[in-house]
Request: fold
Amino acid sequence: MAVASVEGLEGLTIGRLADDLGLSKSGLLGHFGSKQGLQLAVVEAAAEVFRREVVAPASGNAPGLPRLRAQCEAWISYLERAAFPGGCLLTAAAVEFDDRDGPVREAVLAQQDAWLAELRSQGERAARSGDLPAGADPEQLAFDLLGVMLALNQRLRLHRDPEAPRRARRAVDRLLGAREPA
Amino acid sequence: MAVASVEGLEGLTIGRLADDLGLSKSGLLGHFGSKQGLQLAVVEAAAEVFRREVVAPASGNAPGLPRLRAQCEAWISYLERAAFPGGCLLTAAAVEFDDRDGPVREAVLAQQDAWLAELRSQGERAARSGDLPAGADPEQLAFDLLGVMLALNQRLRLHRDPEAPRRARRAVDRLLGAREPA
DNA sequence: ATAGCGTCCGAACGATCGGTCGCTAAACTC
DNA sequence: GAGTTTAGCGACCGATCGTTCGGACGCTAT
Reply:
């Protein structure tokens, strides 16, 4: 995951990875069968990390707006802390494979779809409870939140802008309604 | 540019490109010197396309909000029309090189910075004219607009969601203030 | 006529790519 | 304790990687 987050899933090489692990190429390939098998395993492992770092920590909050808010904060924090040396692996993989067919693309897409569906679901719940600004559309909300996180990721990784998390939090607050004053 | 937009700047290979062009590898390398030279040329050419397709068409509008609105519409349309078979090359390159040092990263970064500065500048002008919703921060606005376009790009390329442009336009309208009723 | 330049070629370089093969040695099963 | 599975090894495969080299061709300017 560390190598793939920097070099990309295609730049992750059997020979290099085997060296890093102190294995022979054939020894490494014994575990994954092929490069594609390795890529799929990496995507699955990265999704597991995402669930552990973002989904799980927020799952303690009440469904609807509170959980949605916690999920966004965990998401921002996850990007800010940079779980992998090259930033969010799934984001990079999504861009790298978005034009290529095959199981890797499917896997990345499935992960993204599941997460966006979860956001939408919490949004719907919040809307039904009247916790969202009037006229809020959960599907649009998921789109907007995705944009915030992609912008945050780019400003962090490419621009190395330390202000980015603040901007992301502001954007989320605007989308979900300003935080209640403490 | 076509190959690089799908396979990435690293996946763009001397041998393959030479074949596509009906050239020998050495004949091709004569023009660019090295693979890095080729990558830089591709980034520069993609930036030129972006200026022609997005910056130029909007430059006829009055500075401030009208031009900003036109720039956003041109941006959305550019992503929607998919100038390259693999979507926006600069977006892909930004993710691919965001963790790598070197001239290619610098070139991509410079292009992004210039464009975001232009957005911020038009935003400032619009704010001074009072054309923006109260309390609007041009820097924040540039961040938010970047997010909208990155989300649009991802929903188009990865999810292949035909609704994405509509969502992007809605998001832009919200950020810039709803369009005046016709 | 000549010199120079830009374009392109084929051949070759060492390195690395993903992947296969047959083997060994340890671990587990019955 | 025999048999089977598992993990890993080294050697090797054809293909491709980026790059270098010497040279050929056509054009232009001197």
